[in-house]
Amino acid sequence: MRVLVTGGAGFIGSHLADRLLAAGHAVRAFDALDPQVHPDGPPAYLDPGVELVVGDVRDADALDRALDDVDAVVHLAAAVGVGQSMYEIRRYVDVNSVGCAVLLERLVERRDRVRRLVVASSMSIYGEGQYRDPATGESGLAPGLRPEAQLAARRWELERDGRPLAPEPTREDKPLLPTSVYAVTKRDHEELCLSVGEAYGIPTAALRLFNVYGPRQALGNPYTGVAAIFGSRLLNGHAPIAFEDGAQTRDFVHVTDVARAFHLAVESDAAGLVANVCTGRPASVVDIARGLARGLGAEIEPEVAGTYRAGDIRHCIGDPARARAALGFEAEVGLDDGLGALAGWMAEQEAVDRVEDAMEELRRRGLER
Ligand SMILES: NC(=O)c1ccc[n+]([C@@H]2O[C@H](COP(=O)([O-])OP(=O)(O)OC[C@H]3O[C@@H](n4cnc5c(N)ncnc54)[C@H](O)[C@@H]3O)[C@@H](O)[C@H]2O)c1
Known about the structure:
By secondary structure, the chain is of the alpha/beta class. The protein has one domain: Rossmann fold (3-Layer(aba) Sandwich), CATH 3.40.50.720. The chain is built from 12 helices and 18 strands. α1 (11-22) crosses α8 (255-267). The longest helix is centred in the first third of the chain and has 20 residues, at 89-108. It binds nicotinamide-adenine-dinucleotide.
């Protein structure tokens, strides 16, 4: 197949391109080379076998040219940054929601040829993860954000009638409660692609990626990717900064596993599929900071900020069962191995630490409290 990967010069897109090439597919990457992600222009890591078309997903003519002779489309192009999306609201809606709309308008003109559409969705659309009440045994709970008064009192865990709730694996049928502009636009990505794909008979899948980490993550971009952000701090001799008490948990999935999930989804014809791409295993933010420091040989403990960010969630771990059943996908890279390899790659990079500036922007707007 000839596969068009929008955002194909990015972190996940370039790993997917490598995998698709190795499997014998032709790959065209359509990417605007956003300077926040690519300050030095086209990335050196991009395989020369990838046909790079520089263009913006909001440009219908450029997309039309890029869609020529394409059999499958993977839509990854996006502005990626939760905190930044809360003040660059128009840009995020424009690039993500409008950009997806433009892509779909051009795509439906090619529906006789395009046999597959796969879009990157995100765990951020869940809002808080799924919980159970240990006192009553009730599970499948979908709480909203923690009340402001509770956070102001620095009680971090989710509560119900004053009792703490316990996180459990988040299933795809949990109600969606996006809590940031970025998350709202990722829900748009998913719902726009699935509804248009269904209406026009283009088999479409949306993969809800959890926290993706690994080599090629933009280290100088302070707005996205906690592992990359911590890495850029450590490489500059600074302590990684964890919000709250650092014990909030996420599901960290390695980028090579994520690329494999997309590859499986491209070659599958499951229509209307929505699936988590995750490991099912929790890791705290402090675990990540310590694992990276260990890998880098840096004796630097994370700094626990004790503050919180508007819209932040406490725990979200994915349930991997549906991706296993529908795609045969199982994450293979363990966190220790993955962080060790990431540290090995980071040690060879130069990283500018812009984290303080990004935090100051949040503080100035009252989004960190
Ligand atoms: N990294 C994660 O943890 C994660 C988690 C969930 C979902 N996702 C999603 O996966 C996708 C890829 O993310 P990533 O982590 O590789 O980020 P990335 O920033 O490395 O890649 C995104 C790419 O899109 C390009 N791009 C940005 N604006 C564009 C535009 N207007 N037109 C064309 N290209 C544009 C950028 O230049 C970049 O190369 C995104 O849709 C993101 O929302 C990522």
